[in-house]
Amino acid sequence: MVLVAEYTGPQGGVWRLLCCPNVPLPKGMSRLEIRRELTDPTAPSSFRSQQLRARDMLRGDLEAEELEQYVEESVLFTTLEKAANWARSNSLFPLTFGLACCGIEFMHTIASRVDIARFGYEAARASPRQADLIILSGRVSIKMAPVVRRLYDQMLEPKWAISMGACCSSQGVFNNYAIVPADKFMPVDVHVPGCPPRPEALVHGILKLRKMIQADPDAGWRTRYDAHGTEEILEDALATTPAAVNIFGPDDTGGA
Amino acid sequence: MSVTGSEVGLGPIEDQIARQRAPDAPAEELLTINMGPHHPATHGVLRLMVLLEGEVVRDLKPIIGYVHTGIEKTAEDKAYWKVIPVVERMDYLAYYFNAMAYCGAVEGLLGLEIPKRAQYLRVIHLELNRLASHLVWLGTSCLDLGAISMFWYGFREREQILDLFEMSSGARMHTRYIQVGGVMEDIPRGFEAKVRGFLKDMHERLEQYEALLDQNEIVLKRLRHVGIVDEPTLLALGVTGPLLRAAGNPWDLRKAHPYSSYDDFDFKIPVGTIGDNYDRYRVRMAEMHESIGIVEQALDGLPEGDHITPDRKISLPPRHELATSMEALIHHFKLVTEGFRVPPGEYYYPIESPRGELACFVRSDGSAKPARVHMRDPSFVNLQAFREMARDSYIADFIATLAMLDPVLGGIDR
Ligand code: SF4
């Protein structure tokens, strides 16, 4: 149990948000508990007792002085990050995007039986600028590939991509001139096999992605592809007009 | 056919058009906007260039090819029976129909007699597939009209149909159930009871949908007298299926040119009156009732017999024969390595898919691979009529019209 935030309530008195991250549950899921508690600000012992409890949780990794120091310095910071990741991984906004047959199974995943709202992913967004997960549900043709890439580029970071179905993972049953696997033109985090994958399989893929985000959010595609510093921003344009971050010129449609 | 504003009570738009058409009207700027290929209301990856005058659509042009998969070309490189999985993936809401059209054409070239039981089993699955396809249409169209609840309901029922498909063939979509010469497997035990249970549910649920939508103020306002195209124009454009029937022409290949024993069943062809969006909606809803009836009749009259042609040159021998019969082993080897050869010729086999006349043209050069496989996909042809339907309507109505057109881009681009 560690302190996340401290604030003064409307009726006076100091409230504390305490959270206990990663309480292990069966089936490898984890739960984060946030508790609100009224404390007496004049008693310094309450914060101290939180720190002691946090220290108990860390015992074994560090010893004595070092442990004390570590608890004082960094527990607050790392748990905040964990809390953020937990929240982030449980409310991905997928892009409303159906390409072909797999798109129908994607719709089934949102619909009543599988009901992806249970995991918090039901808020599908029609605009890539509001979405942080793109599910490539179906076959990507050569004509469509620049459009998909553009949609992906328009999404704000952090962003994730799932390639659903055999077609956009490996061309599937059509090993021919018209289809491009998604890995050829954009980074993909999770591949879901199947033609089409069952809705349950897609849910499995999404939960895998959730685990990835929770375990190490920095291991996004930029880290895995060693692509830091490739953000598409024109530095000199940025220097003159901070709003001009669009890499395309005014008449360039980027192939779309 | 044009209806004046006063006739249908659509004052504002007709007035607006008249005002703009008047000789002394100030020239208003036309605006071209691009819609798609990624747009939630285009039901896939359709791209539309729309010419707007204010809020009124003056002209539009569909741009297709964003899911072009090269299926027809791929089919030329595969043995006849291995083509079935790829053609199934064309119109991905009507996979049984794609397989049926293709197998029908190949069977025509072979001059094959299909066992009666196989024909009935095909009908059962085709009609269940028609229900499933119309349910997606209903759910997504209502989503476009702003009613998300129909999406949940429609997909709830569709899940049940997919369960049935899974029971009979092992897969939810792209089942490869229909084979050249019959169907892959006989129905499993308990399938009939499950289908009957579903049909009973479905009948009730359809009535609930109708109670919810038919007299719904919003549905009426959005659909009635919108997107009217008369029958001669539709015929000139080659439109078939529910769109043509909504304009009053009872053209349905199940009646007009019966295939797969459709003449054994007693069913009606629902038609509309003026061909507006509401008629299109009603025709499809009524069709779903008829489909339920057809499946019931097919289950009642399901004859005993083979589920696939006993011709071992065409159909794979049953598994148990492989262990005991040398001949079966040879047939199996021949079929799996080379496939069967088809006498040279051409065949065009049309069937009635949920969207209209779906036909497969197969040309054979006598080898084990087709020389050409072409699909006449109804979505592709029907999309031509979209310009006529949506011209001079509000942009909001044009979305509803597109939903009622029910295009499937996989079928259009192939
Ligand atoms: S993987 Fe299969 S189901 Fe999915 S889009 Fe490709 S062909 Fe269709």
Please characterize this protein's 3D structure.
The complex is a heterodimer of chains A (256) and B (414). Chain A has 256 residues and is of the alpha/beta class. Chain A has two domains: 2-74, no CATH class; 86-244, Rossmann fold, CATH 3.40.50. In chain A, 36% of the residues lie in helices and 16% in strands. In chain A, the strands form two sheets. Chain A has a three-stranded antiparallel beta sheet. In chain A, strands 4-5-6 form a three-stranded parallel beta sheet. In chain A, strand 4 (133-137), helix 4 (145-154) and strand 5 form a beta-alpha-beta unit. Chain A starts with a strand and ends in a 16-residue tail after the last helix. The model of chain A is unreliable at 22-26 and 242-247 (pLDDT under 50). Chain B has 414 residues and is an alpha+beta fold. Chain B has one domain (71-390): Cytochrome-c3 Hydrogenase, chain B. Chain B has helices at residues 5-8, 11-21, 71-75, 80-88, 95-110, 116-145, 149-169, 191-213, 217-223, 231-236, 242-246, 253-256, 277-300, 319-324, 326-337, 378-383, 386-390, 395-405, 409-413; strands spanning 30-35, 47-53, 56-63, 178-179, 182-183, 345-353, 356-364, 372-376, 393-394. Chain B has a four-stranded antiparallel beta sheet with strand order 1-2-3-9. In chain B, strands 6-7-8 form a three-stranded antiparallel beta sheet. In chain B, helix 6 packs antiparallel against helix 18 (395-405). The longest helix of chain B has 30 residues, at 116-145. Chain B is globular, with a radius of gyration of 23 Å. Chain B starts with a helix and ends with a helix. The model of chain B is unreliable at 1-11 (pLDDT under 50). The A-B interface holds A 96-101, 103-105, 107-108, 111-113, 126, 128, 138-139, 141, 143-144, 147, 151, 173-179, 195-196, 198 and B 37-40, 44-45, 65-71, 73-74, 85-86, 89, 92-93, 136, 139-140, 151-152, 155-156, 158-159, 162, 172-174, 409-410, 413. Iron/sulfur cluster binds at residues 100-102, 138-139, 165-167, 172-173, 195-196 of chain A.
